[in-house]
Amino acid sequence: MAAGQKQRPYRWRVALTVRCFQFLPLGLRKALFTALALAAYHVLPRQRLIALYNLKTAFPDKDMAEVKALAGKVYRHMAQVGAEFFDIPRLTRDNIGDIVEVEGQEHCRESLAQGKGLLLFSAHLGNWELGAIAFSLFFMPNLIIYRPLDNAFLNALVHHVRSATGNRPVPKERAMMQMMRTLKKNGTVGMLIDQNVAREEGVFVDFFGRQACTTDGLAQLALRTGAPVHPLFILRQASGRHRLVMGEEVKTVNTGAWESDVLVNTQNFTAVIEEMVRRHPEQWLWVHNRWKTKPWQEY
Question: Considering the domain boundaries, does residue 298 fall inside one?
């Protein structure tokens, strides 16, 4: 069954949910979501401890008071992402500039001029959902690779918002052929590559000094197609606006040694993400158990 067909039973509930949240002014929504997030910080110890442990391990020079303060900022940021989520379907090419500014447009134009398509990688940094929508409005609709959520209603809700401006969300299990076709048509493919994957789905690379099992799909696709690869991040500014940053091409290493090339390229992509997270640690998803899969686990 196609992804769109799976969403149909939930369409009216999704539309009603979005409209109900849109009815609340954004400022009130942010206050409500922040209160809920801070409550979750105190009453849900598992995610709080994951965040604190990850932050302390990533930034060993920080004392626990600093780590706790940073964790609080992380929860507040996640609350803002959630509050802003419901306004995304209202965005158009006419109004996206009111909240998002762009940096690095020339990189997109130069790479698309090669005619091989464009591979974008990003992370759960800033308002990543807004980032995908902003790219579709400033540049062109994007094929988005994602892992379906376990809850069918929430999955339908996220699919509805992600596709509101022409993006095509595709579950990763059925994505390869669609990615290849998109690139052949000089289209763009976007992936979030900063989450933990199972041992058989990726390779281990260094991320904040620890071995993190990371999807190797982006590296494989780059090697097979020759499509240029660029990082794309959206960052929350102190003013409340957002900055969409498209970085320079990360050159694909292709020596002909497949396994080594996949590992090296995945490490290079991950290093770009780490550098950006280090600059803006309060805007990354530290509550995710990024280092869950261990190198010694068997296939």
Answer: no
125 within some domain: yes
Residue 148 lies in a domain: yes
Hunting for tokens 């090669």 — which residue is that?
114
Residue 90 lies in domain: 3-283
Digit-by-digit pLDDT tens for the chain (299 residues) are: 455 555 567 888 999 999 999 999 999 999 999 999 999 999 999 999 999 999 999 999 999 999 999 999 999 999 999 999 999 999 999 999 999 999 999 999 999 999 999 999 999 999 999 999 999 999 999 999 998 888 999 999 999 999 999 999 999 887 889 999 999 999 999 999 999 999 999 999 999 999 999 999 999 999 999 999 999 999 999 999 999 999 999 999 999 999 999 999 999 999 999 999 999 999 999 999 999 999 887 65
For residue 294, the surrounding DSSP H or E stretch is none
Residue 30 lies in a domain: yes
> In the chain, how many domains are there?
1
**DSSP result, 39-90:** HHHHH-HHHHHHHHHHHHHH-TTS-HHHHHHHHHHHHHHHHHHHHHHTTGGG
Q: Which residue has the tokens 């976007």?
A: 190
